[in-house]
Each structure stands twice: as C-alpha cells, then as structure tokens.
Write a structure and sequence with these properties.
about 475 residues, alpha+beta, Ubiquitin-like (UB roll), Creatine Kinase, Chain A, domain 2, 2 domains, disordered N terminus
C-alpha cells in the first residue's frame, strides 16, 4: 500500500547541530514573493499556531548551517487556552519549562496572503530525536500509522461553523465581552442576500486561502445570527487537519482587517452552537471500503458497520479530544442540530454519526466535535474508534430513524467537561488506543479549564440567584 503518512515513531535525524536542513522551497518562496518574515510554528493542544517570526534571511542561513536547531519552550504544547500550565507533569514547574527542538518542514513552506511578506514553515516538536509523543501532530500521525497497518487510509472533509461579530476582538474585550453584535441579525441559513460587510468578508477569506493553496469548497451563512459555515474539499486526513488550523488563523486575521471578530467557541451565546463536522471515508488499495456491494451503494459494508460500532464505543470515552472546554458542552442541546446521544443513522442530522453519500462517496459524518476542537485531536479520537471497531469485529446498535433526541436507549453525550474527564481518565480503552501518557497529558490540560471556571461567578449565576437565593 502506498505510504500516505509519516510514521509517528520514526526517529528524526535532522534535529541536532551539524545536520543541515534543506531549504530550497523556502528559498524560492522568499525570493519569488519578496518575503521578509518567516513564521516558524508548531500546533498547540488547542489547535493554534505557536512560534516565532524570524527574519527570512537569518532563518535561511541558520537552517543551512545546521549548527543550531530551532527550539521553543516546551510548554506551548502543554498549556490551556490562557497559556496556564498544570501544577505537575511534563509541562509544569516540575519540568523546569525546558526547551524542545523543532524539525522545520521547509519542503512545504507556503506564503500567507493574509499576512503580506510572510511565509509559514510548520515544525514538528521533537524529543530526544523522536517526534514528541504529546504533540497533537504526533498523536494524529500515530493513529494514521496504526490505521495503515490495517491496509487502510482515511480521507477527510471538514465543515466548520463560527460566528462573525461587528467590531474587533479588541473592541469586544474592551466592552467586557458584553453587548456583542453578530454581523447578521436573524436566521440567514443558506441565504444569498448577505449584508455587504459579510459578503466582503467571505470574498476576502476565499481569496487569501486560495492564494495559500487552501481553496474552500463553499462558504454559506448558517442558522444563528452572524453564523458562517465553511466547507473544505475532501482529501488526505493529515492535510485536512493542517488546512483547518491555517483556516482559523486566516479567518481571525481577515475579520480583524475588516473591523470584525470571528469566534470559534462551541457556544458563544446561549442557544447558539458552532460545530466542526468531520466527513470521513476509508480506502484500501482496491478503493473505498465503507459501502456494501449490495444495497445500491447506500448500505454499509461489514467493515463500515464495524467502524460505526467502534465510533459509538470509543467517542464516549474520548470526549476531551472533541469537546475540550467547559463551554463545549453548552452546545449539546436537544433539537439544536448538535447530537445529545450516541446514535447513528442514514442521512439523519440528529445523530452523532450520520451515514451520507452513496457508492464511492459513502462516508460517515461525525457531528460531535465543536468548532473549538483541535482537528488533529478530534480526528485522532475518530481514527482510534475506527481501528477499535475493525480490530474487535464489533456490530453497531440498530440504526436510528426520526428524532434521535428522544431515543432513550442510546447513551447520552456527557453533560459537562467534569463528567467527560471522569470517563476519559478511567477508561482502559482510551489508554489502550491513545496511550496512557497521552490520556494523562490531555486530561491535565482539560482540568485546567475546569479549574479556571470552577472559581468564577458567572453573569448567569448572578441573574438567577442575586435576589432570589
């Protein structure tokens, strides 16, 4: 089978002094596009780009020499949203906050049209000459490599929702995050009569992403005020995750340029939920494997049924990978198009796993992740579920039809991060599929968000209890 992923456990040989890094493609971009700055970045637990902006000439000379490897403080792959670190563990004061090495992938450097004069070089965090086991990219690559051991590869298409607001994020912060005004004021789902600023935003976003080699499939308005959905073409799962990370970075920059702000919170307001739907298909050397040869291309094969069963068994115990924050769980509301039970069905948007398409396009839409999830970790959880279903030869519960919000026979989605963390930390299955160290690390990061909110009084608490308690 053609290798489609980099083996997660392959030792890296270009991370120490004396081994020069080839920089040809980076050279070409710098001179062809008059680049003066290179962002050398890794992806953190939250799915954000973290790194430094280097002078282009200085970085190229440094990489050519091979004398000094780029490094950054290791805590960037171990902190919460506010850059707080756990009290104990690999990224804490116990660890002395030492540096980790970075392996730049200069062969895939790309210009960033939303930041003129700037090129991005992504780098993998390295520990002792190996891909760092706790870096999100390593967690994803590990699952892809293990899936390849079954003779399978995954293709992925991502749909992401976010809410666009009038005024910049700085304006929102100055106002204490209150009285935020969505860029549209009503339900404009599928509407093509878009307000001028929103239409301008969509045009600008498509242009800069296309200029970076990241063309979108479609941009549409969604059901909540100010809500936008962006769909990306199907492709290699690893590339799709990377594309999503860059898309979020571009979205925020473009919104700010136009005097707006984009929020990828799963629930930026009461009654508003933004998801990140993962469309997944599996392929062997002979082609797609999810559809049965019988049933007109709409019926799952035996492997397809095993995959669904595996997802329904693994996703409940890996929720912190696809719903990582306290706010994430406010999205799971009945009849909100976000699932509240672990169900599956044919073309049913109330299910956690929706079977959609036919023949070669038959795929599974996993509707659980929120827009706030790191796609690398969410996809890793999905791939772990796929592997488990195939390895164990599982059979799924009966497919659900109609309103699955009322299906009390199906397990409910966790109601809180605390509930999800308990299941995650105590699950032998999660530890087996992801590794005990990865589970402990991601649980520690998620607990930081839980602790942050536990000590704070919210506006909702004051409104409910100030005069009545």
């Amino acid at each position: 089978m053609r290798a489609t992923v980099r083996a997660a456990r392959t030792r890296v040989g270009r991370t120490t002094a004396g081994a020069a890094e080839p920089v040809g493609p980076l050279d070409q971009l710098v001179y062809a596009h008059r680049v003066n700055a290179v962002l050398l970045a890794a992806v953190d637990v939250q799915g954000r780009l973290k790194g430094k902006a280097y002078d282009a000439e200085v970085l190229i000379k440094r990489l050519r020499s091979g004398r000094i490897s780029p490094e950054m403080c290791g805590y960037v792959i171990g902190t919460d949203l506010g850059m707080a670190a756990p009290q104990t563990g690999s990224f804490s004061w116990e660890s002395s906050f030492g540096d980790i090495a970075l392996l730049p992938d200069t062969q895939r450097a790309r210009v960033l049209p939303w930041l003129p004069g700037t090129t991005l070089v992504l780098a993998d965090p390295i520990l002792g000459g190996w891909p760092h086991p706790l870096a999100p990219v390593t967690v994803l690559n590990e699952q892809l490599t293990l899936l390849a051991g079954h003779g399978l590869s995954a293709a992925l298409g991502v749909e992401t929702e976010f809410v666009l607001y009038e005024g910049t994020a700085r304006d929102a912060a100055a106002a204490g995050w209150r009285r935020l005004r969505p860029a549209t004021w009503d339900n404009r789902d599928y509407a093509l009569d878009q307000p001028g600023p929103v239409a301008e935003f969509g045009t600008r976003l498509r242009q800069v992403l296309a200029g970076a080699g990241l063309p979108v499939e479609a941009v549409k308005l969604e059901g909540a005020p100010g809500q936008v959905e962006v769909t990306f073409p199907y492709g290699d799962a690893s590339e799709a995750c990377l594309q999503h990370v860059l898309f979020k970075h571009a979205t925020r920059v473009v919104a700010d340029e136009l005097g707006m702000a984009a929020s990828f919170m799963a629930a930026p307001a009461t009654g508003v939920g933004s998801g990140m739907h993962l469309h997944v298909s599996l392929h062997s050397d002979e082609g797609p494997v999810l559809a049965s040869a019988q049933g007109g291309g709409t019926v799952l094969s035996e492997v397809g049924e095993q995959v669904v069963a595996g997802l329904l068994e693994v996703l409940p115990v890996t929720a912190p990978l696809w719903a990582p924050y306290v706010n994430s769980y406010h999205r799971f509301v009945e009849h909100s198009f976000a699932p509240t039970r672990f169900t599956w069905g044919r073309d049913n948007r109330s299910c956690a796993v929706r079977v959609v398409g036919h023949d070669r396009s038959l795929r599974l839409e996993v509707r659980l992740p929120g827009a706030d999830a790191n796609p690398m970790l969410a996809v890793a959880a999905v791939l772990a579920g796929i592997r488990h279903g195939i390895t164990a030869g599982l059979k799924p519960r009966p497919a659900s039809a109609g309103d699955t919000y009322q299906d009390t026979t199906a397990a409910p989605v966790p109601r809180s991060l605390a509930e999800a963390l308990t299941a995650f930390e105590t699950s032998a299955l999660a530890a087996e599929l992801l590794g005990a160290r990865v589970v402990a690390h991601l649980a520690a990061v998620a607990r930081l968000d839980l602790d942050h909110h536990a000590a704070r009084v919210t506006d909702a608490e004051l409104k409910r209890g100030f005069a009545q308690a």
